[in-house]
Amino acid sequence: MRIDKLLANMGYGSRKDVKILLKQGVVRVDDQPVKDAKRQVDLETERVTVQGEVVEYKPFVYLMMNKPAGVISATEDKVEATVIDLIDPSYAHYDLFPVGRLDKDTTGLLLLTNDGAFNHALMSPRKHVDKVYIAEVDGEMTADDVRQFAEGVVLEDGYTTKPARLELLSKGRRSTIRLTLSEGKYHQVKRMVAAVGKHVERLERVQIGALELDLTLEPGAYRELSEEEVDLFFT
Ligand code: URA
Question: Is pTM beyond 0.85 here?
Answer without folding.
Answer: yes
